[in-house]
Amino acid sequence: MAARKSKAIAAPIPGEQARINGHSGAQVRVRAQTKARGKSKAGSIKSAPSLTDFTHPVCSAKRIKTEKPFRFHLAGIAYVLWRDRSGAYHCVEDECPHRRASLACGHVVQDAIYCPYHNWRVRGDGQCASPSDPEVSFAVPRFRVFEHLGYLWMRRDEAPEPARETLMPAQPGWKFAGTAHVTMNAPLEIVMDNFSENEHVPWIHAGLGWDEARVASVDFEFEKTDWGSRVVYRAQQRPNLLFRLLLVGTDDTYINEFHSEFEPLRTTYYISWEKKDGRGKRPLATASTVYFVPETDGRTTLHFFFQYRLSALRFLEPIVKRSIPFLAWKEAIDDKRFLESAMQDASADLKGMKLRKFDRPIALHRKLLHERYLRGTKIGAGSAPH
Ligand code: FES
Ligand SMILES: [Fe+2]
168-374, which class in CATH? Predict the structure, then answer.
């Protein structure tokens, strides 16, 4: 992969200027990787792009409180993550270098994981040893894991470390409201298409956004940007009791401005409401950053990072903070149910689809998905999760 000279641009928060992100794994030459290794003419190890060039969220840190190994997938490859007694995290591919047993079925002692089959040991730094064969001495690639926003994040050992604050676009005044995740038994492209448009809102969702009576008056903007795309929907918010509790009026204009980025793949949805007849904004605004993580070719996990801004009525903060992750999670469950049923057998091929105005972001996102994120990486089938 050729090194890219330009720096990746992170999507700005609405109303802000774009800022340089600088954490893109795509900027750097890949020197070592776990799969598809090969020697260049100069003899240095060079390999194909991998999604681990980018920092990905793995799971809530709460899930790894003990020394029990945790298995997860990225692009069809299984990884095992474990935490030693000192609290340090370690990660390697979940495939014993001896005869490929799952290390996640083994146990942890100090910083090492032991394979359940012949008790080979893989230390946190990747060094391997065998109790029956003292001559075994080599290392497997390890992956960096760190904690941020109550989440564990991983990347390839040699990939550039991102500045923590770039993992979730934030600015003064926005407050962190928590995280959530939803796993969908659907391919990445089908999931991403769904999250690239709001046209389905009246029929798939019951809370956020407009209802069927208002579909003809939806205002839509779309533009290609340095970081990917910017899409804005404006429409009359439908009546909803839960949103009334969050200070949203029935006649308000619902505004959803979302920015999609591809290094790695994520979208931030900025949702706010304007009072009728231009009487100003409602006090509540939310920002939900969603990472779309392809686990296997048929399974995608969405990791959500929520923020909110409350410009008045601050006494409502505890309710707002608790409600946002729940309400957003509920909306994502609506999408999951739909994609896992009506889209179960749908081909993801754009050819032959009658793509219209609201689908314009989909065509661009597909292109950028391949150019900037996948870069030729195939999302493999993976094995069944333990
Ligand atoms: S397969 Fe892991 S030790 Fe043999
Ligand atoms: Fe949806």
Answer: alpha beta
